[in-house]
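Worked Example 4.2. Consider the chain below.
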Amino acid sequence: MAPQDGFGGARLTFSIEGVEETFDCKSIINAAGLWATDIASDIEQLNSVKTTPVHFAKGHYFAYQGKSPFNHLVYPLPTEGGLGVHATNDMGGSATTTEMAEAVAAKC
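Applying the procedure from the previous section yields the following structure tokens:
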């Protein structure tokens, strides 16, 4: 991928399996999830200052049986290495909680 400046936006040229497409855009939104940094690194001329390093973590989620005791989201102050135990309500009125997340070296 090669962005080209000059019209107040970017011109991106993608080449996938030998087929080349060019797009003009004012903004580039990278919504590639766990692969966002991989996609960003494939964009030629992208300044490395604009990319954010990724720190992978995983948590263990538990479902609360019965009606949630909370009427709102519960987020404690973050702790070193994680967000701490938090609770969210689902559409059915139950709660889901997680214990502290742990850092992992790479994508799972």
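DSSP finds one helix and seven strands in the chain. The first helix runs from residue 36 to 41. Compare this with Example 4.1 before moving on.
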